[in-house]
Amino acid sequence: MLYDVIILGAGTMGLSAGYQLAKKGQKVLMVDSYHPPHVHGSHHGETRIIRYAYGEGEAYVPFALRSKELWKDLEGKIGRTILVETGVLNCGPESSPFIQNVLKSGDKYALQVEKHTSAQLQKRWPGLTIPNDYIGAYEKDGGYLRTDTILNGYAELAVSYGAVLAGGQRVREVKINKGTVALTTADTTYKAKKLIVTAGAWGGEVLSQLGLQLPITVIRKTFAWLHADAIFQESKFPCFSFDTEMGTYYGFPDIDGTGLKIGRHDTGMPIHPDKKGSPFQDADTEELLAFLSRFMARGTFRLREGKTCMYSMTPDEDFIIDHHPEHQEVMFALGFSGHGFKFASAAGEALSEMAMEKELTVDMEPFRLDRF
Questions:
Q1: CATH number of 120's domain
Q2: Catalytic residues
Q3: Same domain, 211 and 222
Q4: How far apart are CA 76 and CA 73, in angstroms?
Q5: Which domain holds residue 206?
Q6: In principle, which of 56, 111, 121, 314 could form an S-S bond with 335, CB 3.0–4.6 Å?
Q7: Does the pLDDT value for residue 222 go beyond 80?
């Protein structure tokens, strides 16, 4: 069978694209080395933050807002809650470029962003201990996304529209011959008119088979859930992102008794995605507790569970969403640098539009490969 599109990597981006394409009548095959949803990529961990006033730059705001529209649409289609608006607190020194970008993009796009002094933050959320020279930019309609509900929802919808999901299929070889893409696994060879690569940490290796070297480094990351006091429960505390002299940290309130979830966004050890690096260690716990003892010192915390994951980092920490420069039938969305999940709904839409040669709903120019 000749598919219209094969999607290599059925994680968040791939399933989103598969749903969009199948809905539009395309014959779609979604291939993954594992059986999604799984814990081998970068989409596990139950929740992901969604925010719109973007510290990484204004170019992301239209992308984030379109993503929100599509998350709401997905909620309606599957009849399950996937976006929970706890609010998101961005906090750091007033001079922080990240915080200034949040405030500027909030003003430019008339977003629901409140600016707070250190004293105001500590009064509103008593668990915080914030230095006097720090400020907060609180986004009222930010919150978190439920990852497994999204992955299962996209898979169900894509299959209902006729897409094929082939899990447990490790692709050994990718070739292009006379405009036809061929993917070979241990069992079979699949062929299609077009290929979308959304293989996360493995995406660079896939595209290297087609003569394209991407500037992506895979790094080991850690995150954890900690038993916490009642003041950090979801009804009383927001999701958060802190830009500090100790590093950049993000986290979630205690959701349904699972504990306060926290991770460090910056730093990390380079790894190969098949090896994963060392498991969660005592040193990882100590790093997270050091942050909490500085900025949430009025709380008491005890490790419940720690895990590792992977980031696929680009040099500028911005995404790469583009066509292969020599094979226009090949598209890819990679290098999400630890902040891509919230954009998956709109990224899937963009990939489907690229594959069908339609005008893009959201401009992808900021994420082109030729910026490197």
A1: 3.30.9.10
A2: 44, 47-48, 261, 265, 309, 342
A3: no
A4: 5
A5: 2-44+148-215+316-371
A6: 314
A7: yes
